[in-house]
Amino acid sequence: MGVIPPIPYPVVLLTAKDEEKIGNITTLIWIGTFSQEPFIIGVAVKKKRYSYGLVKKSGVFGINIPSQDHLVDADYCGYTKGSTVDKFKETSFTPVDGKVIDVPMIKECPVKLECKLLEIKELGDHDLIIGEVVHTEIDPSVCDEKGRIDLLKLKPIIANYPQGTYHMVGDRIGFWGMSMAGGRGV
User: Fold this and answer.
1) Which residue, 24, 57, 75, 95, shows the most beta carbons closer than 10 Å to its own?
2) Closest by CA position to 26, among listed 48, 58, 2, 1
């Protein structure tokens, strides 16, 4: 195994469902945004994960961002097998239908992204599942007065992969473009 750099990763919950319309949840930490217009994201998932097969077969998935209030359930969803455990029944998570596509979402998560599968890129021990976000739902309670997500209100879970620990977001220490605001710019 190679060295994993000490990069903080956000914890997200991928949702998908099988032919019987039973939803599954898996916990992931390797996620990224690849385009704003259209809104394209990617998540790294091992092929052996039950959800990997569900996404590949259905062509849709959900990305749900849990708050620290659901840390134990989020952790549980990463350590149990969806092929044998109904994670919605075993956790405090409530399934809700997607607004645009046929995918289960998690009611308790303040940020929900409904995604259409665009491509699966084989990379190594994980494959990159790339999807277009076709609907975004953000609970107003985690937004500032201008309707933007406030991380201190969202309280996302941050994973430290090398240590196997969870953390929280701290105080704001600056803003984008602050180096230009003080006359330092060109």
Assistant:
1) 24
2) 48
Whether the bond into 38 is cis, omega within 30 of 0: yes
pLDDT (tens digit, 9 = 90+) per residue, 123-177?
999 999 999 999 999 999 999 999 999 999 999 999 998 888 999 998 888 888 8
What CATH number does the domain containing 24 carry?
Answer: 2.30.110.10
Question: pLDDT tens for residues 45-77?
Answer: 999 999 999 999 999 999 999 999 999 999 999
The answer to the question of residue 169 being in a domain is yes
Is residue 111 included in any domain, yes or no?
yes
Torsion sign, CA atoms 49, 46, 23, 107 = positive
User: Is residue 3 one of the residues assigned to a domain?
Assistant: no
79 lies in which domain range?
8-184
- Are 153 and 65 in contact by the 8 Å Cβ rule? The answer is no
Q: What does pTM read for this prediction? A: 0.92
Q: What are the residues whose beta carbons fall under 8 Å from the beta carbon of 8, sequence distance 6 or more? A: 158, 159, 160, 167
151 part of a folded domain? yes
